[in-house]
């Protein structure tokens, strides 16, 4: 602490001496201009570095001598010849010679004073126990270095967690799909008993499942009466995606499987029917085109067993709904007693001969998938698929119901024709408008002479059309 205090005193003394020296230079007078002095300055230029500053001391008690008095009182320490004495004396006396050749209109040759260095800020309440600022700045530097790596640490940790979640989520989805295939698509299972060809290939070693993504798996089966084939699509949760997994914690979703059965044209009668949970049924009736055009929500009939209150029926007629919801279905899945245990994973089923798409006659089933170790819980739901294939393939409408469905389909065909006609007319009008716009743009780019010739040609064509036509006959 003592040494640092002495250093501060030394810096303050240097600053005071420098300020005093600058004041002495500023107070010097400008009298005594001579022609001989001008010649002397012209012969030898002024060297600013030759001006020596007074000696510096560390003691504050001693008085700093005045440079002018010191120079005057000092005898000539370096005696030289009389011819050279005047230039040297000029350089040693800044008060008389440094600014002797001052010109108010021209400021060339003026020595530029450097600004004094700012003294370090010294606090008054400095105690001997205060730590050194160099040592106190080290913890701040360490904290700053730690903060500078927080972003990298967070990003690296996120990437590591993302990679781990990707592989674990991928494995979970694959295990779930394989568990379903092992339960319902292997030897002795439901689909093996009802279809002759399972999987995407023809050989015995062909894979049962086709993986289209990390959370999408497909299963195909064919070789059964009344239908061309069946396609099952499993849409699982995006467990491999960390963001989707976190989102599913906030907004839960389920693993779903959809069965699409492509019926033969001659095997399915005119049927539009759907069964779903109440909330989903309202959305289907508004959004699905064939249900919106042909079917409507039905109330529960009185005097017979019906589906549970959680489900709603959408049908083209009461006859179709009564014939498709049989006693066996109510006892197995959709009854009051069976639904709580076996129908909890049911979402919807939709049968239609007016399905929008390449295949008009289709049966759609949508179920939720349970966990891999609880696949047996959806056995009765999967059994609905072959059951309704046979039921729809053998079902025939009564004459009264057929007449109503025929009238509805004729009306729907007329509406479709009108929609196509209107769309065609709109396309033609749009094409004509675009062609007219192109012609106008082309005419705007033509010259005046070309426009005049075109107008004359159009006028001649109009006059020719207006003239009466004469028919030449032989006498």
Care to describe what's here?
The protein has 475 residues and is α+β, with helices and mostly antiparallel strands. The protein is built from 17 helices and ten strands. The protein is flat and about 125 Å long. The longest helix has 47 residues, at 399-445.
Distance between the termini: 142 Å
Give the low-pLDDT segments. 26-99, 121-128, 133-137
- Helical residue percent band: 40-55%
The counted number of beta strands is 10
The biggest beta sheet reads: 10 strands, antiparallel
Over all CA atoms, what is the radius of gyration? 52 Å
Could you state the order of secondary-structure elements as H and E? HHHHHHHHEEEEHEEHHEEHHHEEHHH
The number of distinct helices, counting runs of at least 4 residues, comes to 17
Shape designation: flat
β content, as a range? 5-15%
- Mean pLDDT rating: 76
Query: Which class best fits the helix and strand makeup?
Result: alpha+beta
Short key terms for the protein model shown above:
10-stranded antiparallel beta sheet, alpha+beta, 475 residues
How does the SSE layout of this entry go?
Blueprint lengths: L1 H25 L8 H9 L23 H7 L8 H11 L1 H5 L34 H16 L1 H35 L5 H5 L2 E2 L10 E3 L4 E7 L4 E9 L6 H9 L5 E8 L8 E6 H10 L1 H6 L1 E3 L12 E5 L2 H7 L2 H8 L1 H7 L3 E7 L9 E7 L10 H16 L4 H47 L2 H19 L9
Antiparallel strand pairs: 1-3, 2-3, 3-4, 4-5, 5-10, 6-8, 6-9, 7-8, 9-10
Helix pairs in contact: 13-14
How would you briefly describe this protein structure?
With 475 residues, the chain is of the alpha+beta class.
